[in-house]
Amino acid sequence: MNSKLPKTPAVYVKSKSFRLADVDPDDITPFANRPDDKSDVAPRLLELRRRLSELQELLYAEHRRSLLIVLQAMDTGGKDGAIENLLTGVNPAGVQVATFKAPTSEELKHDFLWRIHAQTPKRGHIGVFNRSHYEDVLITRVHGLIDAKTCQERYDDINHFEQLLTRNGTVVLKFFLHISKDEQAQRLQARLDDPAKNWKFDPNDLKERAYWDDYQQAYEDALRHCSSKDAPWFVIPANHKWARDLAMSEIVVAALEAMNPQPPKVDFDPKQQVIV
Amino acid sequence: MNSKLPKTPAVYVKSKSFRLADVDPDDITPFANRPDDKSDVAPRLLELRRRLSELQELLYAEHRRSLLIVLQAMDTGGKDGAIENLLTGVNPAGVQVATFKAPTSEELKHDFLWRIHAQTPKRGHIGVFNRSHYEDVLITRVHGLIDAKTCQERYDDINHFEQLLTRNGTVVLKFFLHISKDEQAQRLQARLDDPAKNWKFDPNDLKERAYWDDYQQAYEDALRHCSSKDAPWFVIPANHKWARDLAMSEIVVAALEAMNPQPPKVDFDPKQQVIV
């Protein structure tokens, strides 16, 4: 990641002593002083969207590098909404969103990165992972499907895999959308109260909610072990959706600005071309 | 296709005696009387975008059917711009755009529909083909890479393949963006004149332009043979980009309205769920 980070509530994970509990999911500074004081937010979001759309077109024209955005969160953390808000307005022909659910029986016949690798973005594209290879050091660990040694090995595998991608010209940005346990309760309740949202509720989410503390620990460890300069993790305070969206947009646009994509040079003389 | 077609300049190909030359690429009726008289266009496009975004979310929630939009055109016909205008504003997580170029050596080891089949949209998704299996009865035919018998067999193969998709719940809409030869000359020249557009110019396009009449004939034949009620072809007059975009939006939204996607019913009682 470029050294000039935009000013957002997001926390860039740099150290092995990083503590998730130190990040306040309600944080909105420096965007605003109070959650209802956000008069400057809408125009800035619009400006970032316009710029993202321009940069995506240049990335596509250049056709040499790509951007991968990895999104992880607890249930109701806002992954779907964040993707929609970040990328709505960008030409969908240059975007690939991959959603990873429980692996299929075919996928389980391979190593855990096999299905992930198949979905990495093509040159010129922005790829988004809605959940990712990190599930293989989160849910699997919380439920004791892998032991500590395997988990450590997977951190290594993940770091090597992301290094391969960055060496091939893919900039990797990873976002953990950080909500509080209370906020999750409210969002789950909203899905139950509104009949139009009932289909988004999965009774199984309540079982996972019981493992809240174990998940926070598993996230903290994964973020500590798998954040690097080339493939950084950002913890995004995400109780306030508008602050979450603005922080992500700022970071993504800054990363693309640093990439500074250029349209390719042509190998013909435009003046010599005659159209008949 | 539902019998109630929206009123647009588009021509729905219904008959084996369809003539491409009868469609005027400049046609803008009933949208406007003159190309510069389009005061009602912007609000209508906005309304269609809003509705498309809602319908896409319902299609995604329903998770049972999908929509496939096939785009074909002569070079500079506006496929990229049409896709961008149609789908910008739709949640990219529910959209898959596949761009088909010259087949790779691996793809050539299979039948011509193999690589196409792999890119058909998942349940709940809108898929877009930027070029498609129709190239295999267009460029191949114009350049004599297949004979008349093979071409006829491929029309059959295509019809059977699209029938398989529609039987599986995929609504198939096919658009030929119809520009005039003069319009193509102007668009190619614009790519030469504007340094920022130079990279979009391919000197090879001039060679293909020399086969203009052969391509028009190949398109006419493909459209005659491969347009059905379930997988119709629409010829979109496309000299005026705004009319092209509006026509496509009207047809796509009407098709989704006819599908009438519904969120799935839940199999639990929301009142019985307790969040602790």
UniProtKB/TrEMBL annotation, chains A, B:
One of its GO terms (molecular function) is kinase activity. Residues 38-262 form the Polyphosphate kinase-2-related domain. Gene3D superfamilies: P-loop containing nucleotide triphosphate hydrolases. It holds the Pfam family PPK2. It comes from the Bacteria. Keywords: Kinase, Transferase. InterPro entries: P-loop_NTPase, Polyphosphate_phosphotransfera, PPK2-rel_1, PPK2-related. Belongs to the polyphosphate kinase 2 (PPK2) family. Class I subfamily. This is Polyphosphate kinase 2 family protein. It comes from Hymenobacter armeniacus.
